[in-house]
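Feature request, filed as a ticket because there's no other form

It would be nice if the structure record came with a short human-readable summary line next to the tokens. Right now we just get the raw output. Example of a typical job, pasted below so the devs can see what we mean:
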Amino acid sequence: MGVFSAMKRTLSKSPKQDNVPEKLEKDMAPDLPVKVQPEETSQLEKNFHSEKTLEKKAAASPSVVVPWILNEVSECDISELFDCRVQMKVHAARLLDCWRAHEAEFPRAFARGLLQVLQGFDQDNAGSSKKIKSLACFLVHLFDGKDSAVHIRNGKEELWTLVLPELGRIELDRGKDWTSNAESRSREETSELLTAIGNHGRTCVVQTCALCGEQLGRHSNSLVDAAYELQNKIYKMNVQARTPRKKATELETEEALTLKIVF
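Raw output as currently delivered:
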């Protein structure tokens, strides 16, 4: 009877108990990777590469990013308003990413990049004036436009309050070659751009920009005044730089005349 009782107890064992080893086996089994469809893999790779590309662009030196963007802007066909607006927003976003990645060095690099682009213009070419107007239009709206997608700030910092002083420090530096023709030419180009920024900004404060269709913010008079003030300082410095050259030329002419009379 005892044997049959034991067999009966074995046969009547709970199914739940039988499943315990199976459950443990499932719990201990390694997690297998989820099968991803080819099209999903392709999209994941695209997203990954897009993120990496953005990181590289943001991490790129402003000495590379700034002149490239400003040169692109100067070549922009501003007669196509829609394309111009789109390009302005795309370039503004790139500059903001670069500014955030290189905070301390960005303003000075921006000023130097701006001078680099200006020096690349052929001042004797009629297209130079058009390029300066396109560049001034972009800078005015980048510095103080109403559209937040174009007007960039880093926290509470306004870009123009950092760039214009840097531009002044570079152009008003009285180094050993400050009276040279090359330095005077550079100051003339900068002066022309600052005048264009002031004129463009003054117009866009009261009406929509005729070039890109955008408007400026309410406090843009500060930007306009700062541009004109710096332009005036650079102009005066150029006058001073030309004075010794003029005197030297006059002396050379007098010496040549004297030699001619003597002989």
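Something like this underneath would help us a lot:
Strands lie at 153-154, 157-158.
The mean pLDDT is 76.
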